[in-house]
Amino acid sequence: MSDLVVHHLGISQSERIVWLCEELELPYTLVRYDRDPATRMAPEAYRALHPIGIAPVVEVDGLMLAESGAIIDYLVMKRGGGRLTLAVDDPGFADWLFWFHFANGTVMPAAMMGIMGSLLGIDGGLMATLSERSTRADALAETHLAKATWFAGESFTTADIMMVFPLTTMRAFAPRDLAAFPNIRAYLARIGERPGYQRAMAACEPGFTPMLA
Question: By C-alpha distance, which of 60, 72, 81 is closest to 13?
Answer without folding.
Answer: 72
